[in-house]
Amino acid sequence: MQADDKFRVVVDILYYAALGAAVYFAVRYLLCWTLPFFLGAGVAALLRPATLKFAKKTRMKESCAAVLVLLFFYLVAAGMLALFLTILLAQLYELLLRLPELYAENVAPLFDQLSGWFYGLAGRFGASAEGGLEQFSGAVSDTIRQAAVDGSTHLVSWAAGLAAKLPILLIAAVFTVVISMLTATGYRQVGAFLCGLFPGKWEERLRGLQRFGRETVWKMVRAYTVIVAVTFLELLAGLWLLGFQYVLPVAAAIALLDILPLIGTGTILVPWGIVLIAGGDLVGGVGLILLFALIEVLRNILEPRIVGNQIGLHPIVTITAMYAGLKIAGFWGMLAAPVAVLLGRYLWTGAAPERRAEA
After folding, report:
1. Which of these, 141, 53, 135, lies nearest to 103 by C-alpha position?
2. DSSP characters over 177-200
3. 190: how many CB neighbours lie within 10 A of its CB?
């Protein structure tokens, strides 16, 4: 390797190290300060095609059309969110009140059956085995009680922390709405101002980033939103038909866990079904396993058509990026990390994932 090549390698390493440090600093510190701006501008940009279509059909000024489209979007989103949260919180409150009763009716009999089976098995090996099993059973019971106490403590602490953050979240939501309105009504001026902050030679790359955001990121977000909604509705209908209670919070939690790579609905439904079968509820246990099979079949049919195999990442890359995003910027960093990886791949190759897959 020549001296010039070595020098170029060192410069490249230093350049990408500095770039990585800048990205880390921006995500870790600047993002929390400027999140309303990015969310508001992102909403305005994603609704831009709908705004242009509405303005063209109604022959209305773009600024007026943008305000109407955004108002419709926020009203629908707020109404759906309020309805969902009202039902969810009501069922969660009722579920928390009935936890001791549910434990006595469902969990305790299962432990009694398992203890009886283990004691019968230990009786074949003499009194010493029964004594050891008794100690083990006591240790398991103490662990379960302590886990319940710790879980309740963490839940109360989390709820108190969330309540303390509600005023800040409300202010951030108001700023997001205002920024989205201002961005949408002056979209061309805002775009020209942002482009003017960068050198002229970056103009084509910035336009490419805009296309990438609309064509790739928006498609991915929209597709997986549809998939999560379909999974949620399947879980809601299946659990309701099987006669379970509190189906809304349970279906919502499982559907959200289904977003995470390598987890899916099977990690909840299959063990749950096995526990019910072991406890004597054959219909409920088999029903949950069949519900999981139905969800998987429908998902394998719908996902290639909705998402397509041209976008997304390998599960290992996705889960690594999500873990890194969680450590850097918390929950929102975990959600944004896969998109950041897609964006980095686009910047590195200069082509969107769709075009690379087709090549």
Report:
1. 141
2. HHHHHHHHHTHHHHHHHHHHTS-G
3. 17
Mean pLDDT of 323-342: 73
Q: What does DSSP assign to residue 47?
A: T
Q: What single string gives the DSSP state of each residue in 252-301?
A: HHHHHHTTSTTTTTHHHHHHHHHHHHHTT-HHHHHHHHHHHHHHHHHHHH
Structure tokens at 332: 């929102």
Q: What is the pLDDT of residues 287-297, one digit of tens each?
A: 999 999 998 88
CA dihedral 17, 21, 24, 27 (to 10 degrees): -120
pLDDT band at 76 (very low <50, low <70, confident <90, very high): very high
- Alpha-carbon distance 262 to 322, whole Å? 12
| Nearest residue to 346 (alpha-carbon basis) of 313, 309, 324, 318 | 313
Q: Which residues, including other chains, have CB under 8 Å from residue 178's CB and lie 6 or more apart?
A: 40
Residue 359 pLDDT: 34
pLDDT digits 0-9 by tens, 122-131: 666 665 656 6
Instruction: For residues 39 and 223, give the distance between their C-alpha atoms in angstroms, rounded to a whole number.
Output: 19
pLDDT at 233: 92
Residue 169 has pLDDT above 90, yes or no: no
Residue 246 CA to residue 90 CA, distance in Å, equals 10
DSSP letter for each residue of 108-172: HHHHHHHHHHHHHHHGGG-HHHHHHHHHHHHHHHHHHHHHHHHHHHHHHHHHHHHHHHHHHHHHH
- Residue 44 CB burial class (10 angstroms; 0-12, 13-18, ≥19): buried
Tokens of 314: 């390998």
Do 289 and 269 meet the contact criterion of CB atoms below 8 Å apart? yes
